[in-house]
Amino acid sequence: MYLTKKEEKTLEGEYGETLRKAIEILVALGDIYGADSLIPVKSAQIAGVSYKTIGDAGLEWISDLKGKARIPAILNPAGMDMMRWQDMGIEPEFAGKQQEIITAYENLGIRTKCTCTPYYLEGFDAGYGDHLAWSESSAVCYANSVIGARTNREGGPSALSAALVGKTANYGYHLDEMREPVMAVTVDIDLSGADYGALGYVAGRVIGNRVPIFYLKGKPSGDELKSLGAALAASGAVALYHVEGVTPEAIRSKFKRPDENLTIEREQILEVYESETECKEEQETDIITVGCPHCSPGELKDIARLLAGKNVRKEMWICTSREVAERYPDLVRDIEKSGAKIVCDTCMVVSPATNNYRCMMVNSGKALAYVPSMCGVASRYGSIEQCVREAVQDES
Q1: Is the model's pTM score more than 0.85?
Q2: Most buried in the list 32, 243, 320, 370, measured by CB within 10 Å?
Q3: Pick from 222, 240, 241, 234: which is nearest to 152 by CA?
């Protein structure tokens, strides 16, 4: 792999041990995947933030690094709401360790905004064709597919390395030829809202890590595309998908329809809603969570409308980024009037607070895939309207 003179000096340690380690990680990845060079990236989004997932070993590794990020960089969700962790039932020992992790990243010049939806943050925009180094699976899928930016599914160390060096290896989804669809997915039924998460949950298992192009009847919204991609990335390992006539590359490139086709029927979507394989049929839902990925302003508005004049009778978390919550205090106030909780900086997947529950209702295909396996908590699926009815126990 070609390196500039400055990159060679960095690899030789002339600019310090931290940068040497960082570029060594990037070069190693480049060598493995046949990259021709390192390329500049516009921003980084770094996973490996929750103390639940990285533990003391990860904290020690981050704390030993010295340096400053050269590009805008933010963090994936932490293991707790950084301001209201006590309300979540987080133990003080965990909270202390989590704060140490955030401080260690802050010392490296990383913005301590913890979210899986960095594209909602002001001043952290990504555009068509921009090269990025993002690591959270749903964020990667959204960036590649909905925005038309270019990023591989980075691990936490490689995304952090890219932030410190300002570059990443030029392979995978940074290259035109890797972004061509190889599989068609035909969905000749009407879909809306949580149906797209169910679609991603079903299709991702078949697609795996390939690049699909969807042929849909309708035109999904940005939030629906977010839900589709998040579920595709969680039930499979999709980092890029196209939707004919909707997503930017599908519009610009006019891809040829692939020979391999997967057809999704209405019955398969309904099975996701009706499945009781995670929660036993007689088992009562004891928590409802929404916001995986983190809620957009539009989703908060919808939730506030659905909860207006109602009181929740079960624990209900609405997860979003702190910046979005602070930007829309009226929506936060309206939602919390019902007794539901706005939870910032974290989500049900990476927080140990989830372990206090037995059966969770979600409106996210991503959460449906991850919560049982990563948290050991049974889960069932519903639309946001069904989730609200469950929370308020309103059968009307």
Answers
A1: yes
A2: 320
A3: 240
Question: Can you list the pairs that 99-106 forms with residues at least 24 positions away whose Cβ atoms lie under 8 Å?
Answer: 100/59, 100/63, 101/49, 101/51, 101/54, 101/58, 101/59, 101/62, 102/49, 102/75, 102/78, 104/59, 104/62, 104/63, 104/65, 105/46, 105/49, 105/62, 105/75
Mean pLDDT for the stretch of residues 315-336: 98
**How far is residue 197's CA from residue 210's CA, in Å, rounded to a whole number?**
18
Burial-class residue 5 by CB neighbours within 10 Å (0-12, 13-18, 19+).
exposed
Residue 102 φ then ψ, to 5°: -60, -40
Q: Which of 177, 153, 151, 182 is nearest to 257 (CA)?
A: 182
Tell me the two tokens of residue 163.
């932030």
From 32-46, 50-64, 382-396, the region with the lowest mean pLDDT: 382-396
Cβ neighbours of 232 (radius 10 Å):
35
Q: List, in order, residues 6 or more apart from 41 with CB less than 8 Å away.
A: 71, 131, 132, 133, 151, 162, 166, 167, 168
Spatial contact of 328 and 297, defined as CB atoms under 8 Å apart: yes
Phi then psi for residue 45, to 5 deg, are: -130, 120
Domains of the chain by start residue, with CATH: 5-175 (3.30.499), 180-273 (no CATH), 275-392 (3.30.499.10)
Report the C-alpha gap between 5 and 38 in whole angstroms: 12
Residue 396 pLDDT > 80: no
Q: Say if residues 116 and 294 touch (Cβ distance below 8 Å).
A: yes
